[in-house]
Amino acid sequence: MASTVWKGYITFGLITIPVRLYAAARTERVGFNQIHQPCGGRIKQQTFCPQCERTVERSELVKGYEVEKDRYVIVSDEEVKSIAPPSSDNMEIVEFVKAEGIDPIYFDASYFMVPEDAGKKAYHLLYETMRKSGYSAVAKITMHQREYTVIVRPHADGLLLHTVFYPEEVREVPEFQRDESVTVKPQEVALAEKLVEGLAADFDPSKYHDDYQKRLMEMIEAKREGLSVPTEAPKRRAPVIDLMQALQKSLGELPRKPAAKAAGNEEAATAPAAKKQTGGKRTARTAHG
């Protein structure tokens, strides 16, 4: 059973809905331990105090914030809890915004928002209203000793919550900007659009997998069985010199898409006849899309 990340209320106007948050996704990767090579033993990290010159127990540790060099203000867990803002257990919607107006660069972590039994009707009222209106909600929530601005939006099965970065957390990189001195030819754009159309498909995340993690596990299993480890040399790529030539070659290497439906085949079959009757190039272009 999934563990609750946050429990409290989401409110808009005078409507209060008891909800729980569950982590919607987590990163999975192959983990390695630090091993002492001479004996094969696993290394254990210890907490060491250089002033006392000894290893200390966790029970001896407290939180401290460095205000000057080697000078700390000690803060207890009770003191931290005592100044928690209202958003610790009450997530108030402050405004609604159109989903397309939110720049994805601000999105951080994602959570499933699940209603308690007492709040199911109000939850679904909010969900249906947001789904039909195309609005997402902006709210505040405190968890993990931090107050977040969050976006709440409708998903297929309910409401999703995304913590978002504050503007000062989004980095400014001078190199990341449009170079107005660079231009591309209309013919290059036209071929690039055809290449995009040839690779276009509905987004299906189940098609994509972490091949690097898979190869790591294959390598580990091979070493475990005493087998040789297969290797693959990385492909070396050079910058494209002739864009038109590269685009034309890319179009020629596109994978073939499944055959069109019967209606589409009939339309394609009648196209040559239509071309013969009209004798014009315009009909030929229409037949080929």
Counting DSSP H or I runs of 4 or more residues, the number of helices is: 7
- The helix/strand series, from N terminus to C terminus, equals EEEEEEEEHEEHEEEHHHHH
- Tell me the distance between the termini: 51 Å
| CA-atom Rg in angstroms | 29 Å
Overall shape: it is extended
- According to CATH, the fold-level topology of the domain at 6-26 and 83-169 is Ku70, Chain: A, Domain 2
**Overall CATH architecture of the domain at 6-26 and 83-169:** Beta Barrel
CATH class of the domain at 6-26 and 83-169: Mainly Beta
Unreliable residue stretches: 268-289
Strand content: 25-35%
Structural class: alpha+beta
Sheet with the most strands, sense and barrel status: 7 strands, mixed, barrel
What is the helix content?
25-40%
Widest sheet: strand ordering:
1-2-10-13-12-11-9
The tally of beta strands, per DSSP, is: 13
Determine the mean pLDDT: 85
